[in-house]
Amino acid sequence: SSTPPMSPTDKLPDLPPSRASQIMKFGYPGFDNLRTFEDFVLSYDRKTRTAHWVCEHLTPDRMVYVPDIDRSKCDFRPDESIHSYFQSQNEDYRGSGYDRGHLAAAGNHRRSQNSINQTFFLTNMSPQVGKGFNRDKWNDVEKYARKLAKKHLNTYILTGPLYLARKEADGHMYVRYKVIGKSQVAVPTHFFKVILYETSPNNFELEAFLLPNEVIPDETPIEKFHVPLDAIERAAGFLIFDKIPKGALKKVNGKSIGGFW
Amino acid sequence: SSTPPMSPTDKLPDLPPSRASQIMKFGYPGFDNLRTFEDFVLSYDRKTRTAHWVCEHLTPDRMVYVPDIDRSKCDFRPDESIHSYFQSQNEDYRGSGYDRGHLAAAGNHRRSQNSINQTFFLTNMSPQVGKGFNRDKWNDVEKYARKLAKKHLNTYILTGPLYLARKEADGHMYVRYKVIGKSQVAVPTHFFKVILYETSPNNFELEAFLLPNEVIPDETPIEKFHVPLDAIERAAGFLIFDKIPKGALKKVNGKSIGGFW
Ligand SMILES: [Mg+2]
Ligand SMILES: [Mg+2]
Questions:
Q1: What is its cofactor (chains A, B) (predicted)?
Q2: SS (H, E, C) A70-129
Q3: Please, how many CA atoms are within 13 Å of residue A254, restricted to the half-sphere of its CB?
Q4: What are phi and psi of A117, to 5 degrees?
Q5: Cα-atom radius of gyration of chain B, to the nearest Å?
Q6: Residue closest to A191 by CA, chosen among A232, A148, A220
Q7: Residue B3 above 60 pLDDT?
Q8: Which SS3 state, helix, strand or coil, does residue B171 take?
Q9: Are A31 and B30 a contacting pair at CB < 8 A?
Q10: Residues flanking ion ligand 2, Cβ below 5 Å
Q11: DSSP state, B223?
């Protein structure tokens, strides 16, 4: 091409940061089978046929209501970027008794029809108990995250499934989870959601939620599901928002923290 | 520096291929937490605290006996390159009833003391039933791989743990496995070993073994554990030796295959 070579003193043009780098500002928990969608980033676990994690970035201006955007135009569909051996299918969920539960919530991605459409890829779904969980308490946690996002400068949300060990009758610890359909999609025992929000420039608060994938009584307050962040990290096998600068995090689960992080 | 710039017509020096690229010649199953050791390559699963897979490359000249190399000088030790949250420890295995079973077999890496030492990192261990499995039938499979390696030009071995679903009394499929120790190291339900060997230049045979992690009667022939390669791939969540050129693979589990692969 005819572009002249840049001299070392030329200033680089100020390109806007990519959406993915905005979303992932505080670190990738891992790099396994990344899917970079228009408005969220996902790492897919080909063994369980659901995600390792999904990361979102919300801001007040992104939370405005766009009347044209219509959830009812969206279809749950397999993600054909994944090798056929490892895809989940709508048929896996049919008759299983589980909802196709969104990890990145559809309601967080209403700025374009393509953004909300992409939340309906089956890579963004996990088998969730419907009534009492997906449609109720888990939805409360999603709504709480949106409430925070409307009030704060930047909100980052990391969401994912977990498969926690329990003590069985023999006194030993076991991981046990159901798998559904021909693709053997794993039914997580729990889901986590970690919300990091910027309350004033470079000051952050974090809330870490861990909920069992089961019917949860409506009267249970969501704060009852606060857990230490490292409980999620150890079970998940990855670190969460580990690039937060030292000292920038002021509160965890509503409690002020000292200089340590 | 004073090195003159290369002109496009200069020939690049003939560097020997890196050991890792030799070992991984037929493709990486994945790139999660790679550990490139002197004589084998490992991908670590921080969630289960054991490997996803381990890959080895053996040749007849590498299988010679070096009398100085001494297995009894080796110590099982934690792999401190892994974040402390996700390491396994010797204490996790103590009193568990399970052996620290090698994935890359110590006996395959006897050309230098450092090579064999590195097979004793706990990242290369999985909890294995000792008598009747690690010390017996699984060892038979390892010895069979070495026998093949002594006879053929190049032998590639991919080994790893699996966690297979089973039907329970309620008619549904479940994955269930024990976890041991404070680190909750997963006890795999099965182990696989896939052996790819070059019988003449660019002609290959493959054998895929899948064994339950349990006492196996001595009289069971190892061929009884042959399975189709895709059975392992689907359960593992990755593809195995998928860079074998079309047509180069002549036999799978002792049976000639057609032009299809
Ligand atoms: Mg939902
Ligand atoms: Mg062994």
A1: Mg(2+)
A2: CHHHCCCECCCCCCHHHCCCHHHHCCCCEEEEECCCHHHCCCCHHHHHHCCEHHHEEEEE
A3: 7
A4: -55, -45
A5: 20
A6: A232
A7: no
A8: coil
A9: no
A10: B 101-102, 134
A11: G
Answer whether A179 sits within 8 Å of B179, measured CB to CB: no
**Cβ of B180 and A173 within 8 Å?**
yes
- Band of residue B6 on the pLDDT scale cut at 50, 70, 90: low
Residues contacting A212, CB < 8 A, separation 6+: A189, A190
Among residues 152-211 of chain B, which lie with CB inside 8 Å of chain A? 165, 172-180, 184, 186
Tell me the average pLDDT across B211-237.
98
C-alpha–C-alpha distance, residues B184 and A174, integer Å: 9
Contact between B261 and B245 (Cβ < 8 Å): no
Per-residue model confidence as pLDDT tens digits over A120-160? 999 999 999 999 999 999 999 999 999 999 999 999 999 99
Amino acid found at B47: K
**DSSP helix/strand/coil, B197:** strand
A213 annotated as a binding-site residue: no
CB B104 within 8 A of CB B54: yes
A104 Cα–ligand 1 center, Å: 9
- Considering the candidates A102, A109, A152, A190, report the single residue annotated as catalytic: A102
pLDDT at A8: 57
